[in-house]
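Recall that a protein's primary structure is simply its ordered list of amino acids. Everything else, from secondary elements to tertiary packing, is in principle encoded there. The following example makes that idea concrete.
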Amino acid sequence: MGGGIADEGLARRLKALACTAPLHDLDGRKARLDWADASGYQMAEIALQIIDQVTIAMDFDRGAGHEQVVVRMRPFVGAQATDRDEDEHDRITRWVLDNLINVGSVDRGFHTVYGTFGVTGEYQRRAFDFKLLVELAGPDGEVYLRATDEAINVLVGALDTDVESAQIAAEVKLENLIRRGRLSDAKLAAEQARYRTVQYAETLRRKLDATRRDVRAVDWTAEVPDLIDEALRHIEDRFRAENAILRNITAARDDAEDADRKRRAADLVDIVGDCIRRHTQLQARLQSAGETFRAEQDRQQFSGPPQRAAVDLFGQLLVPCLDLPLAGAERPTSAFFGAGAGLRLPSVPGLVGLVEMLLVPAQERDGLGGDVAEPDLAPLPASDRYTEQQWRAVDNLFELDEIPRRLSGLLGEARRIDGDLAGLVVLRALHAFSPEVGSAVRQGERWLVLAVADGTDLMDTEYGGADLLVARARLDPQSPQSPQSAEDGEVA
């Protein structure tokens, strides 16, 4: 199994499985939802549709809004459970969307460990971190969803595929399928070609974003110029191919007499037209990439050093203080937190502040207060574990004479009556081990069950501990109801 080729192929397959694992995990965890019966929903299919909607809505500056995805998913989710209301459909969509973003984790990413073989043939474990959907801020301040390369590869059934070669293969396949009249397969190939176009544009967008943060983090000497040249050649080739394909699809749509065939051809026209629009947008960004680099280079070069150096909390404060005794670390930490806490406001305002406070007009207050949000309460768990018949059966068992009985004997008799009564007998015996005598006297109880441990071990297949002596004692109703006697509860 050694060798680079075998290792690379194995690693690709393992990564492909890892990228699909979060989708399969959704169907495994849907039974745990306590607010809906999710057995009728196919969560992996919903997840694929969400990734598809986010990918189609992506461009250079924006992505898909959360509510936009929820609205677009209503017909698909509603078709899986037509007997449910729209609120449940939207809640299911949001639950799947949060799991694709991996809300709740520290970095909102997925982590898996896989094994592969090294050059010398030894087995090595490697870590693979990936994300499917990410939240990024747009130029207008809104938060948008964007699909990662791993998510797009999940859609097209590949992983770490070269964008250019995959795009050429998809275009050739699409053209051949259209020429042979297989419009259903051609639609799938056209959608995959569009996914690759989006992935290519996403690569350029990340390079430009990294440049805006730090021009030194991106190789503008060789890597990015080569990327721009390859992308421009890619767009030129795709324009010729897609225009030719668009003419063939349009002719197939106009000449088709079958309504279903005409509809599928019309869908292909829309998809290929969207690909042409995306290539036009990509070309405009590629032409302005060099200008972006030069502008950022000038801005970052002449912005000057920061006026105040930031404090390295780890290297300048934490690590040195860990080597000091407690008395020595008190002074630097007190100085840092004292300065970081800011100025202390005086307890009594000065004359200027007092005059400003007196001259501020009173604010109108709503006497009823604001609206109280309706709490989302979880359903209470079922409290009646035992039936009324089982309670009466245990009460009859504890109708004891003056002679005490062992807990083991009560358990054996309870199991002969009903196999589920043993747990209730144990609960009653534990409650009788330290009874509330005073409460029983105040409530007017005439009998009280008592349990005493005499050092005998309980020999039972299900329960362990002490084999308690259980007896029933009569409370004297004529005892004086003083605080002492009420607490002691005179027992006859």
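The chain has a mean pLDDT of 77. The beta strands are 110-117, 123-130, 133-137, 143-147, 405-406, 447-452, 469-474.
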